[in-house]
Amino acid sequence: MASLAAAPALAETAHKPHPAAKPKSAGKKPARKPAPPPAYGDRADVMAFADAQADSLGYRREELRAVLALARPQPTVQRLILPGPPGQAKDWGAYRQRFVEPQRLQAGLAFWATHEAALARAEASYGVPAEIIASVIGVETFYGRIMGSFRVLDALATLSFDYPSPLPPGARDRSPFFREELRQFLILARENGLDPMAMKGSYAGAMGWGQFMPGSWRRFAIDFDGDGHVDLIDSPVDAIGSVANFLREHGWQRGMPTHYEVQVPNDTAARAQLLISDVLPQLDARQFESVGAQLSPQGRAHNGPLALIELQMGGAAPVYVAGTQNFYTVTRYNQSSYYAMAVIEFANTLASWRKATGPTPPSSPASAS
Questions:
Q1: 162 and 63 assigned to the same domain
Q2: Does 309 lie in the same domain as 185?
Q3: CB 162 within 8 Å of CB 214
Q4: Within 10 Å of residue 35's Cβ, how many Cβ atoms?
Q5: Average pLDDT by stretches of 10, the chain with 369 residues
Q6: 303 and 183 share a domain?
Q7: Residue 190 domain-assigned?
Q8: Region annotation Disordered: residue ranges (predicted)?
Q9: Same domain, 66 and 214
Q10: Are 223 and 264 part of one and the same domain?
Q11: Which of 339, 347, 363, 333 shows the shortest CA–CA distance to 108?
Q12: 337-357 and 102-114 are packed helices; what angle lies between their axes, rounded to 10 degrees?
């Protein structure tokens, strides 16, 4: 989007006469450009990693050393991976508004119209509703518009070998996770003939329309368009099938609601008993009601465990729902109850809009938004 925004300015200046050159100030030295961040080629720990991993990753040692030597630490990645300031109040209303908004919904209608057959096939094959699949892609990348501008190799190397330190209270060192994702990325590039220096993604190393981490790409991505290879960057159809497969493999149950309405008990201790399992469903409807919670009729009839989900609203009273296995499954995509609820509410709103307006042809004004 930045390059498109800059284009009119460039076109405008192309027709203007160049101003007369100003004389250089005598004796004034030009400003020195800041030195680029150092590469990893001289780091003994990085080269030791290359030597130890080369054989298992399918690289020659010199080859893997050369690849990792080209990675550069990214201070922005180090900053973005850390949690927000301690004590910052969460606000579900503000979080929801970032995603469940008209422009993204209009883009969702156009995406659904364009890929109606693929979404229907994914729903039939994996049991995940089309609106949930479309919602994940919309929330993750605004339907391919925002897929990340960081070199994946740089991001994963930074988080593997230069994870921020010291960490703020409550944060933990996740460098072992990212070191494994770096391994998976290097295998992914070799297996698919991809240039590891050219692949772009998020600051955490997630890629493509559905923002898959390298390990998830290798385990759950599928060739859904039938062209003989998996491509989550240039094939939205592969992304549709892969999102559906990911959710099914993480426990999505066909036909099960994601959550039910619930009135929580006023007693703080009773409410704490229900919140103890966080997003993992562990209590049945009878246990909910035994401590004073009131479920909707559908929730009382639910056959399976539930979890009480608390969504804070800044200074206002929190919002509560009773989450099912399918709510928990959405949190496997991104481990946040706020994220899961945003996906679910976007999906419900998108399906409602589609029902009200009918399938939107790709050439309509809605798709051009």
A1: yes
A2: no
A3: no
A4: 6
A5: 30 34 50 67 95 96 97 96 80 96 98 98 98 98 97 98 91 96 97 95 98 98 97 98 98 98 95 95 96 97 97 95 98 97 98 89 42
A6: no
A7: yes
A8: 1-42
A9: yes
A10: no
A11: 347
A12: 70
The position carrying tokens 């390990």 is 215
Instruction: Note the pLDDT of residue 351.
Output: 98
179 and 49 assigned to the same domain: yes
187/282 same-domain check: no
Q: What is the pLDDT of residue 13?
A: 30
Asked if residue 123 is part of any domain, the answer here is no
For 301-318, the DSSP string reads T--S-BEEEEEEETTEEE
Alpha carbon distance 247, 140 (integer Å): 15
Would you call 81 exposed, middle or buried from its count of C-beta atoms within 10 A (0-12, 13-18, 19+)? middle
Structure tokens at 24: 């250089």
**Residue 219 is assigned to a structural domain of this protein:** yes
Helix, strand, coil in percent for the chain, rounding step 5: 50, 10, 40
Which one from 12, 62, 131, 140 is the annotated catalytic residue? 140
- CA pair distance 284, 290, nearest whole angstrom: 10
- Residue 272 has which token pair? 């704490």
The residues, ordered by sequence, that sit 6+ positions from 155 with a Cβ below 8 Å of its Cβ are 74, 77, 201, 202, 203, 204, 205
Query: Are the beta carbons of 178 and 205 closer than 8 angstroms?
Result: yes
Q: Domain tally for the chain?
A: 2
Q: In what order do the strands lie in the sheet with 307-313?
A: 294-295, 259-263, 316-323, 307-313
Both 202 and 62 in a single domain?
A: yes
According to the model, what pLDDT value does residue 1 have?
33
> What's residue 21's pLDDT?
41
Residue 87 pLDDT = 66
Q: Is 140 an annotated catalytic residue?
A: yes
Residue whose token pair is 């706020």:
338
Residue 6 lies in a domain: no
Q: Are 227 and 98 in contact (CB under 8 A)?
A: no
